[in-house]
Amino acid sequence: MSSSRLRRALATPTGMAAAIVIAAMLVLAVIGPIVWGSKAAAIDVPAALEGPSWQHLFGTDQIGRDIFSRTMAATRLSLELAVLSTLIAVGIGIPVGITQAVLGPRLRRSVAGVISAAVAFPGLLLALFINTIIGIGATGAVLGIGIAMIPGFARLAQTLSASIAGLDYVAAARTLGISRIRILFFHVLPNIAEPLTLTGTMSVGWSLLGISALSFLGLGVRPPSYDWGSLLGSGLQYVYENPMASLGPGAFIVLAGLAFNLAGETLARVQGGTPVAGRPWSGAGAVGAAASALATAPAADAPVAAVADGEADAGPGGEPDAGVGDEPDGPAFAGEREPDLVLEVSDLSVRFPGAAGIVTPVRGLSFTIRAGERIGIVGESGSGKSMTVLALAQLLPYPGRASWKSLRYLGRDLRSVPAPELRHLLGTSMALVFQDPASSLNPALRVGRQLAEVVQVHSGLRRREAMELAVTRLREVQIARPELRAQQYPHEFSGGMRQRAMIATGLMGRPQLIIADEPTTALDVTVQRQILLLLRQVNQDSGAAVVMISHDVSVVTMLCQRVLVMYAGRIVEDISTEQLLAGPAHPYTRALLASVPDMSTDRDRPLVTIGGRPPALDALPPGCAFAPRCPLADERCRAADPALEPLAGDHRVACWHPHIGRPTSA
Amino acid sequence: MSKPGRMNILEIRGLTIRFGTGRKTLVAVDGIDLDVPRGGILGLVGESGSGKSTVARAVVGLIRSAGGTIRLNGADLTAGAAERRAARRTVQMIFQDPYASLNPRMRVSAIIGEAMRLRGTGAERIPGLLDEVGLDPATASRYPRELSGGQRQRVAIARALAVEPELIIADEITSSLDVSVQAQVLNLLRDIQRRSSLSVLLIAHNVAVVRYLSDSVAVMHMGRIVEAAPAAEFFRAPQHPYSRTLLDAVPQLAGAADTAGASAWTPVGEPSDPHEPPTGCRFHPRCPVGPAVAADRDICRTLDPGADAASRPHRAACHFAGMLPAPPPQVIAATPGQER
Q: Could you tell me the CATH number of the domain that includes residue A95?
């Protein structure tokens, strides 16, 4: 663990409190018996059973010994016993657990069985049992608690190391012929050390409580030795005369137990903190978050479901733009604006507050989507393509924020639409299809029910009608025997069928815009083709516009008529597929096309590559973001960022040196 | 058949691998024959679950086989531990995901150094090796988390090369990388292979990648090799209908726009359950020219065509192998924008 992270953890209130209390306890453990030892043992029978006073803060016991001094002096033994028993648990449990990573399959199974059985046995009962066998006393208590905690540690270490053992770097080490012992110590242990440390820390608190409990019951530390538990026990005999005699030692047990638990919590937070400090805007996480947002969205706005696909929106609100385009086939697109625009956005930006200031994964995009159009958004990871559509769908993961100069969807200014109505509008007219159909469908619900739920919520259809519609939609996405399939669960579907079901879900609400984020990346090539065909079919049948996001420009050209190429959060080229294949204008697009091997790539020449790597979003160059990797870049490119300007007709490009004219070969 | 180990560095015969026991048994690899030519690249193509990665893991000893032989330089790796130990210096593997294949707690120098110890060479070769894979020698002191995906994959390649192997198994090494980085890594693999006449078993689902690099090609489907041929031969005249569906599904940049049009070579229906593979030819329920379409081809249902005669240069496990219509001529013109 890095020291800076530890320092940050200590700066939190809980971290600081835990550190201070543990430090104080450790000091007490060292000096306690030295400073208070003689006073704690001093018998003063005439002063027996006195209440709290300045001389005796917690009062005195039956033979007049000062309970405060005894509590202080007991710190060392109490902590020692707790640490000892934790060491027993850690020292046996972890080795047993991590051998799972290197044992052969048969031995592994039997050890796992023993661990599972032991975990099922109640811990404190086991401790009492062992304590009785070994003999009542400090040794018995330590062994009892220690042994009782072994199965827990073994199970934890087993689970953690099994997850590491499945990773490729362990497989790589095995193919190198590295010994099992070395694999264990160099590849497995360092990668599970953090969670084990924190559990170990918390266990000190737990075993302190356990041993104190045993001592309190008279099964642990016995006179003439004493720990907090036994002091608490003996103090309880005269709790009515002097409550402090038991409350004092009790308070120390609670304090120490709390401190160790808080320390564990703090360590856990430090470790859990790493992913947050990473890149919150990276694709995978965002899509996951968005998928769950999508799943919950329909349920959230049940009250407005009465407004079904309706013309009602245009009514008394009196907004000039309201209601336009709610009727998919109707002539409702009134007015002087461009009649067939599904979406029109200008200057769209997405910002994420990060550790090193604000990062903007999407920077000032302007584009339009016409009705019935199939548009592709292409870019490499981190180019902002997923963030763009998540912003349009109002599904940006926290703490991202989108801003725009104007955003008109189906002819309405999204800023003027109140939140519940917005959810309804997007829920019925926009469909999203994500990369991983396995995680976008609820595994516990039958597929038909999931589809039906969408219209039940948004259009107020009855259950039966909704189910019938679901079956119709499943048939439309070419799922064979849809009546039967509707009754099945997602896990009974193949990957391609799940993606079809996702598309069918989108079709339930009569969408005008279908956004598909890498819809075929998780699928095989033959299935990919079928899904692309289906998307085109849906586009032609329903007239819905399709926006497909992909990292693979060749896949996009199979489906789309127009392609937006993104680089470092900006659109660098907006180009028709025909023009793209004939020869794009932006150097990045050109290099991107050339670097993909296809069935006509010359085998005797190396592939064209783009030198360097995309800029970090928090360290963008002042001029064109592609300039550091561009063969054509000059002073102007490095100084000023080119705007996305029309080149010819609808073809727009953001470059000071666009490639114009017929493509020539070198 | 040629003398073992002469022409082919790796010869697999009748390899069978099972997962699970009892009714849940999955035969992931079902008696396959496969040769990797010495100094050449064999591309092994197939869709997810076809068993191609399982073959790779069996060759490097990560998975035990249930039958058959794996001969590396003539020595049978399935015979015993001594052979397997000796093989570790001869064969190395590069994994798909460079984010999972490097230990996050080890510096690059330690990752490569660990592999070098096996060879008995010292750390002084590390800078040269990093240079060979196109990395700054200063990378040695970095941790994997400080590197990009492409740089990580280069480190993984350097680790494999550190052992000075004769055969490298590259399992989907570019499928988790961005396209511009994919080209860099493919070029690197091509350079290294040519420079040191390495033999490579290249596993990929991307047919275009396999076409670009391979000297010969094998197609795997549901645990079996359905077609194997020299690359030029295979891409000129693929003989198995499954190979045709794979080739047809490859996105074509050079073709006309909007190429997702329906094709005669699209598989029928949904993938079969690998736990209960179809009888006869395993592709028959999905075959676009099989019994699902042509009623007179009932033989596909009942009789396993089998890829017999491993000695034949172009073998296809199909009863109607020679009778497929030829594919349209390949577009040879360079892709627009390919000039440098």
A: 1.10.3720.10
B15, two tokens: 């390899």
User: Is B199 in contact with B167 (CB distance < 8 Å)?
Assistant: yes
Please name the amino acid found at residue B113: G
Q: 3-state class of A169 per DSSP?
A: helix
Distance from the B101 Cα atom to the nearest Cα atom in chain A, whole angstroms: 4
Q: Do B104 and A497 touch (CB under 8 A)?
A: no
Task: Give CATH superfamily name and number for B8-233.
Answer: P-loop containing nucleotide triphosphate hydrolases (3.40.50.300)
**Encoded tokens for A28:** 């007490």
**pLDDT of B174 higher than 70:** yes
Q: Is A304 a member of any domain?
A: yes
At B199 the pLDDT is 95
| Rounded Cα gap, residues B150 and B148, in angstroms | 5
Inter-chain contact A533–B262, Cβ cutoff 8 Å? yes
The answer, yes or no, to whether residue A73 has pLDDT greater than 70, is yes
pLDDT digit string (tens) for A239-254?
Answer: 788 888 888 889 999 9
Claim to verify: residue A264 and residue A307 sit in the same structural domain:
no
* A572: Cα separation from own chain's centroid: 31
Residue A368 domain-assigned (yes or no):
yes
Under an 8 A CB cutoff, do A557 and B258 touch? Answer: yes
pLDDT at B311 over 80: no
Q: In the predicted model, is pLDDT for residue A231 greater than 90?
A: no
Interface-testing mutation among A279, A526, A549, A561, with chain B (most B C-beta atoms within 10 A): A526
Q: What is the 3-state secondary structure (H, E, C) of A473-535?
A: HHHHCCCCCHHHHHCCCHHHCCHHHHHHHHHHHHHCCCCCEEEEECCCCCCCHHHHHHHHHHH
**Does residue A445 fall inside a structural domain?**
yes
* B66 burial level (CB within 10 Å; 0-12, 13-18, 19+): middle
Show residues of chain B in contact with A496, CB under 8 Å. 270-271
> From B150, which residue of chain A is nearest by alpha-carbon distance?
A613
- Rounded to whole angstroms, the Cα distance separating A499 from A535 reads 11
Across the interface, whether the CB atoms of B254 and A557 are under 8 A apart is answered no
Is residue A625 in a domain?
no
Would you call B212 and A597 a contact, using CB atoms and an 8 Å cutoff?
A: yes
Facing residue for A169 by CB, picked from B47, B61, B100:
B100
pLDDT of res. B167: 94
Q: How many CB pairs under 8 A join A and B?
A: 223
| Ramachandran assignment for A636, one of left (phi > 0), alpha (psi -120 to 50 degrees), beta (any other) | alpha
pLDDT at A181 over 90: no
Asked if the Cβ–Cβ distance from A480 to B269 is below 8 Å, we say: yes
Q: Kindly state the average pLDDT of the residues A547-567.
A: 91
**Integer Rg of chain A from CA:** 34
3-state secondary structure of B123: helix
Q: Which of A215, A245, A277 is the last residue of a domain?
A: A277
**Residue listed under structure tokens 């924020």:** A401
Mean pLDDT, rounded, for A19-23: 90
Interface test with A, best of B206, B247, B253, B286 (most A CBs within 10 A): B253
d(CA A648, CA A576): 11
Partners of B240 on chain A (C-beta within 8 Å) are none
Same domain for A332 and A246, yes or no, is no
Of A526, A552, A603, Cβ closest to residue B212: A603
Mean pLDDT, all residues of chain A: 81
Residue B219 pLDDT > 90: yes
pLDDT at B326: 60
Nearest-by-Cβ selection for B253 from A171, A557, A603:
A557
pLDDT at A586 over 90: yes
Q: Which residues 6+ apart lie within 8 Å of A504 measured at CB?
A: A451, A470, A473, A474, A476, A477, A479
In 3D, which of A578, A575, A515 has the Cα closest to residue A548? A515
